[in-house]
Design a protein that fits this description.
8 helices, five-stranded mixed β-sheet, disordered N terminus, 17 strands, alpha+beta, rod-shaped, 382 residues
Length: 382
């Protein structure tokens, strides 16, 4: 169980280079001990994604990529937000200088020590690590790994240069020449050195030379991931299940809506096919010799107007017309739609009503009296 606990708390610590093609340094850190610092080309960063600690990756940014400033605030109780910090720090830059991503390193009374870094460059570095399968949860400056001195400086030999951290929170990377100049002109009261100093210092405490990553303490380092640059929020398994259920619900609702639309479309298509079939049958029934069957809606009414009405239509019209003449009784009818001949056999005692019936012409035929014998009228069309 102890081994599992230690493994679960392990952190993949990566130190990037200041140059685009520089290799990176990495080590597995578990809070109390660390392994051997190793180097890896940037092109092979994806190989670290297979390590369990890759899910908790901390990044050390070269301090030479930052710009340090000392700010003053009105009083000790001044409420400092990320936006206010950016406003105060940007005022220290030249007029045409681009805005930087500022991080608070130290606060004592009304004095602030801040560090600014190019936000676009930092985002590009984080995106590169993320694209390699590494989950970055914290990013800080490599010089912040140095223990903070209460009244003086802490320096560490890093290759051919020196990393510096002062008691007021300022950090930097100096050449050996600059370090000698500062120790000569502005000697600190106390000096802790990891490595042999280039010149002696009366109040120096020398410690064995070591790698800067071996001094990393998670709790003591200020993170650069704040404001708009924040690490991704860890999602619990229960939250992931809820999101999955919600996504499935949305997909199901969308599927049901699509199925309903498909069913309606199928129903409308079937109705349209049925109506078209009925119209075609009527066309073939009344006008079989006409070939304009592709546009029934336009040609059918015109063709029907040119044809004699069907017998049923004639009878319906005749029935409606005779209803207005109670003195006329229908004894019979002879109708030939192909010959367009119509004969009506009517019984009426009043000749006026017969003439009025002929005059109205409600049947669509020009009618005349053929014969009249003892109340029986035979009317035909011309």
């Amino acid at each position: 169980m102890q081994n599992k606990r230690v493994a679960s708390e392990a952190t993949l610590l990566i130190r990037t280079g200041s140059q685009p093609q520089a290799s990176v340094e990495w080590v597995i850190h578990d809070g109390s001990q660390h392994g051997e610092v190793q180097r890896l080309p940037r092109e092979q960063l994806s190989e670290l994604a297979a390590h369990p600690a890759a899910r908790r990756t901390h990044v050390l940014i070269p301090v030479e990529k930052t710009l340090c400033r000392t700010l003053q605030i009105p009083d000790e109780n001044y409420e400092l937000t990320d936006r206010k910090l950016h406003w105060l720090a940007d005022e220290t830059l030249d007029e045409n200088a681009p805005s930087l991503h500022w991080t608070l390193l130290f606060r004592a009374g009304t004095t602030l020590a801040v560090a600014g870094i190019d936000k676009a460059w930092l985002e590009a570095e984080l995106n590169t690590l993320s694209s390699c399968g590494l989950t970055v949860t914290k990013a800080t400056l490599d010089a912040l790994c140095l223990p903070a001195a209460e009244d003086g400086w802490t320096v560490l030999k890093d290759g051919d240069a020196w990393l510096l951290r002062t008691q007021n929170g300022n950090v930097s990377r100096l050449t050996e020449t600059w370090l000698i100049h500062l120790l000569t002109r502005f000697p600190p009261q106390q000096l802790t050195s990891y490595g042999l100093l280039p010149i002696p210092h009366p109040n120096a405490t020398e410690k064995p030379e070591c790698h800067i990553m071996s001094l990393y303490r998670d709790a003591d380092a200020a993170t650069l991931l704040h404001d708009s640059l924040r690490p991704p929020v860890a999602v619990s398994a229960w939250s992931a299940r809820l999101k999955l259920v919600a996504a499935c619900g949305v997909a199901l609702a969308a599927s049901v809506a699509l199925l309903v639309q498909a069913a309606c479309y199928w129903r409308l298509d079937a109705t349209q096919a049925q109506l078209k079939n009925n119209l075609t049958q009527q066309w073939q029934r009344y006008i079989p010799e006409n070939r304009h069957s592709n546009n029934l809606r336009t040609y059918l009414p015109k063709q029907l107007q040119q044809r004699s009405p069907a017998p049923l239509t004639v009878m319906l019209r005749l029935q409606a017309s005779l209803a207005r003449f109670p003195g006329i009784a229908l004894e019979g009818m002879r109708y030939d739609s192909q010959q367009k001949s119509l004969q009506l056999f009517l019984f009426a005692s009043d000749e006026g009503q017969v003439q009025q019936f002929i005059k109205e012409n409600t049947l669509g035929f020009a009618l005349t009296v053929d014969r009249h014998e003892q109340g029986m009228w035979i009317i035909k069309n011309d």
